[in-house]
Amino acid sequence: MNRSPLDWDALIRDLVTTGPFARVDYTAETGSTNEDLLRAAREGAPAWTVATTEFQGAGRGRLGRPWTAPPGSQTIFSVLIRPSREQLTSLGTVPLACGLAMMDSLSEHSVPGAGLKWPNDVLVRGRKLCGILVEAASLDTDPAVVIGMGTNITLDTAELPVPHATSLALEGVSVDRTEFIVSVLLNIHRRVGQWAEGERNWLEDYRRVCSSLGQDVRVILPGDREILGVAVGIADGGQLLVRDAAGTVHTLSAGEVTHLRLQ
């Protein structure tokens, strides 16, 4: 099993020298690349700064869930963007654009069975492959948004953080970690760039790969309220549209989705 370190020279060449990123900060080990980059943002780091590492000991997913794995077994990175005040009104769709970027890279690597559970859970054959956490800071003064991603690359069954997770290796897909992280970052730059320009075509692409659509779903809303129904669409604001048994369509901007059957 190849768990050699990322190729630093290739990262700089492909992302900064010939690519669209401002800088790449690399550490062998850290607590959280999101925390590192939020701190760098406060210190004036430019937009499109990347932080990456071989191992993070305090990585978090949505709802504060831990997300960790052996050194060199994942691609772990965070990206800093600096949206304008006008763009803050559509900030809620950034996680969707990031999930779509990961799907772009999985398509490039011919990963079978990949799909997006709303809003941005990247699944392969129904098992979680990638965690995405988007955090914002200083929105009232100097807006900064950090996009964090951790993707399971070479984990075996015993190393999975939860039983419903998977890795590219377990799905029979072999990738070079450096090449894969470059692919995902370039796709993030493209998809978030489309978001920043106010384009809507990327949402059509999102709808095509959203595995929640057409599914019977249970959605746990804030306050532990539950909605059962069929996911029938994605609104232009990124909300999930769920039609319940009475025919009422609910427009949901947040919630924990469970697919009740596999397509």
Features:
seven-stranded mixed β-sheet, 24% helix, five-stranded antiparallel β-sheet, 30% strand, 263 residues, alpha+beta
Main beta sheet strand tally, sense and closure: 7 strands, mixed
Give the total of beta strands: 12
**Any idea what the radius of gyration is?**
18 Å
Report the mean per-residue pLDDT as an integer.
94
Report the span from N to C terminus: 33 Å
Name the helicity range: 10-25%
SSE order, one letter for each helix or strand = HEHEEHEEEEHHEEEEE
Number of discrete helical segments: 5
Poorly predicted runs are: none
Q: Taking strands numbered 1, 2, ... along the chain, how are they ordered across the largest sheet?
A: 1-2-3-7-6-5-4
Overall structural class, as computed from helix and strand content, comes to alpha+beta
Q: Tell me what portion of residues adopts beta-strand conformation.
A: 25-35%
Query: What is the global morphology?
Result: globular
Structure description:
This protein has 263 residues and is of the alpha+beta class. It has 5 helices and 12 strands. Helix 1 packs parallel to helix 4, helix 3 crosses helix 4 and helix 3 packs across helix 5. The strands form 2 sheets. It has a 7-stranded mixed beta sheet with strand order 1-2-3-7-6-5-4, sandwiched between helices. A 5-stranded antiparallel beta sheet has the order 11-10-9-8-12, with no helix packed on it. Helix content is 24%, strand content 30%. A hairpin with a 2-residue loop joins strand 5 and strand 6. The longest helix has 20 residues.
